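Suppose you are handed a protein chain with no further information: no name, no annotation, nothing but its sequence. What can you learn? This example shows the usual starting point.
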Amino acid sequence: MDRVIFTGARLFDGAAFREDHALVVEGGAIAALLPAAEAPEGRRITLPGGTLAPGLIDLQVNGGGGVMLSGEAPGGAIATICAAHARLGTTGVLPTLITDSRAATRAVLAAGVAAVGRVPGFLGLHLEGPHLDPRRPGCHPPQHIRPMEEDDLDTLCEARAGLPALMVTLAPSAATPQQIARLAGAGVVVALGHAEARYAEAEAAQAAGASVVTHLFNAMSQLGSREPGLVGAALSLPFHAGLIADGIHVAPEVMRLALCLAGERIFLVTDAMAPAGTAMTEFPLAGRRILRRDRALRLENGTLAGADLTLPQAIARCIAELGVTPEEALAMATSRPAAVIGAKAGRLAPGLPADLVHLSDDWRLTRVWQGGAEVQAKSSTE
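A reasonable first move is to predict its three-dimensional structure. Written in structure tokens, the prediction is:
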């Protein structure tokens, strides 16, 4: 069995740093974390300082490598998206379908089930819609937004049985607490988002089993002095919440406040679109033109449409601009999102796949491994 010993960088195990340690990989899996002086014989990879961390995990990835996840050839799109994000340091992905037709949703679910065990980095699917609030559509095509029906519920529960993880973003106005409870009981991770929801509605959804809030602060009812809204519920109730830390979707001061109030419940997402990992400057979305300008993706009317962001960039921004400790910033992109979906990833521990990233001292991505095999890394979207 090929044994590889990683030395020269401090290790981040998903919770804390381990200085002067070696990581032992055998057969594509992590075998041990040992003091460097106790490392066994094997092929050595000596890194030039920096940090060796678990491969990054992203629970909201709409596209990458030039494609969006849609009902058109979804199997190929899933593979392309996962491969594109692996090169950007994200070795575990939930490819995300934004609001679409019933036929497209079913095609993507079937493709996801077929991808299990075949596509490296595929952790499951995220359906962002179509059961959203038409008052908060964002860039989602309004013609497909609709309340959840019994047939939708049956389809989602059946698909979850064939997937390692299924996250569904919905609005409390589009699904009853009873429907949410059935989804959660089937193992679906229920997230609230794109909702003009009152605090009481979010609280009822949380009591029924909703556990996540999608892209906190964006496309949702805001915190008010008399009505806390979905933002207030996310910050005060035991929700996990995804945060797009590009400095555009949420102001730095607001991100700091969220981290103070929600702490370990916050994890990073990119909300990436087709341009991720490419030089694309525009692309179509549901018949509309999306422009890539000034580090942002927008409809021609200025509405944000996903983000032009990688997880290493988000980690670096959290450390440099928000004053987040490196340990917390790394956890926000590794162990925390993995725990949200119950994935065996996001940590350096014996028996887990050797999905690894090496980050320089200034938090730039330099190298990536997936299942112990090196992937050609890209330091940013190009």
